[in-house]
Description:
This protein is an all-alpha fold. The protein is 54% helix and 0% strand. It has 3 helices and no strands. Helix 2 (39-49) packs antiparallel against helix 3 (59-89). The radius of gyration is 17 Å and the shape is flat.
Amino acid sequence: MKSFPELMDDQPHGHYFRKCPYDQIDVYRVLELFAVANPCIAHAAKKLLVTGGRGHKDAEQDVQDAIDSLKRWQQMRREEQDGVAMSVLK
């Protein structure tokens, strides 16, 4: 089995492409192929890929959920930076 993600550098903007050995894929496979490891980013991507198409939430709510997840990602980065700064002060 090939390791993922495998870039397709032989074409323009190759970093946006991955080789896919599957007939069909779901959002979780896309996240895997693109090596999305952070749960906040994964959640936002999942919401954006099917914005308004899940039936029980409209597009506005899905986009807001993605924004909220990305804001949390930013907040976590600040927490990590503050933690490093605090540890230097100790």
